[in-house]
């Protein structure tokens, strides 16, 4: 995997950011609003923004951050109010996971409509690197596996919710080589990802 770099901006265009520069483009599956979906990506950014962040032009904001960092080509951009320098990381057998864990405003996914309408965003962002190529369906399955492991970590940590209103997951793997067909929690790589996600979140959670 490409190691993360920590950058501090002093408020312009963000507070700080974790950036991954991918020397060789990787195949990504992401739920991020900027660069999400499935495709080749050249970089990933997890940018820290103020707690009162209210910009709606998220794509333009991510482009500003990428430009400041000198990142070129298509990438994935995620935002969080959590301290990106205080996240958690874990790995297992070639899988590497980093997570920033903002849990000021947890919520239940199937909350009543009135609760959803009034929920303010917080963010848990997860970036996972896989050592071998996965097919598109397997990558989509890995996204589900990561989310399941996230919920397990939150519940075991006493968090009253399944996440926040704006959580994002990005999974990356090599773009060449035989494609793994499965990514569930009992597949070889999926089980490693699940354990690494769980460990990264627990290490990055502020005691409640």
Descriptive report:
- This protein has 208 residues and is an alpha+beta fold.
- It has a single domain, classed as 4-Layer Sandwich (L-amino peptidase D-ALA esterase/amidase).
- The protein has 4 helices and 8 strands.
- Strands 1, 2, 3, 4, 5, 6, 7 and 8 form an 8-stranded mixed sheet that branches.
- The two termini are 32 Å apart.
Short overview:
The chain has 208 residues and is an alpha+beta fold.
| Beta-strand residue percentage | 25-35%
User: How many strand units?
Assistant: 8
Elements, N to C (H/E): EEEHEEEHEHEH
Helical residues, percent: 25-40%
Number of helices: 4
Query: What is the domain total for the residues?
Result: 1
Structural class by sheet pairing and helices: alpha+beta
Assembly type of the chains comes to single chain
CATH architecture: 4-Layer Sandwich
Determine and state the CATH class.
Answer: Alpha Beta
Measure the end-to-end span: 32 Å
Q: How would a crystallographer describe the biggest sheet? A: 8 strands, mixed
Shape: globular
| Poorly predicted tracts of residues | none
CATH topology: L-amino peptidase D-ALA esterase/amidase
Mean pLDDT: 93
Radius of gyration: 16 Å
Give the topology.
Blueprint: E1 5-8, E2 16-30, E3 37-48, H1 58-69, E4 75-80, E5 88-92, E6 95-101, H2 113-118, E7 124-129, H3 136-156, E8 168-173, H4 188-204
Parallel strand pairs: 3-4, 7-8
Antiparallel strand pairs: 1-2, 2-3, 2-8, 5-6, 6-7
Helix pairs in contact: 3-4
């Amino acid at each position: 995997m490409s190691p993360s770099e920590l950058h501090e901006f002093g408020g312009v265009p963000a507070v700080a950011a974790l950036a991954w520069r991918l020397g060789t483009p990787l195949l990504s599956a992401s739920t991020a609003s900027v660069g999400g979906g499935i495709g080749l990506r050249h970089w990933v950014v997890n940018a820290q923004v103020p707690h009162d962040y209210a910009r709606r032009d998220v794509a333009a904001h991510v482009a500003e951050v990428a430009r400041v960092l000198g990142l070129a080509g298509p990438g994935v951009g995620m935002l969080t109010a959590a301290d990106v320098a205080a996240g958690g990381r874990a790995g297992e057998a070639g899988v590497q996971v980093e997570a920033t864990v903002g849990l000021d405003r947890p919520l239940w996914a199937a909350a009543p409509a009135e609760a959803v309408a009034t929920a303010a965003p917080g963010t848990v962002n997860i970036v996972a690197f896989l050592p071998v190529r996965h097919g598109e369906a397997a990558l989509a399955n890995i996204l589900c596996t990561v989310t399941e492991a996230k919920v397990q970590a939150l519940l075991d940590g006493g968090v009253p919710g399944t996440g926040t209103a704006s959580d994002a997951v990005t999974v990356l793997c090599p773009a060449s080589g035989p494609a793994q067909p499965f990514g569930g929690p009992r597949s070889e790589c999926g089980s490693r990802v699940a354990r690494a996600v769980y460990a990264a979140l627990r290490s990055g959670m502020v005691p409640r």
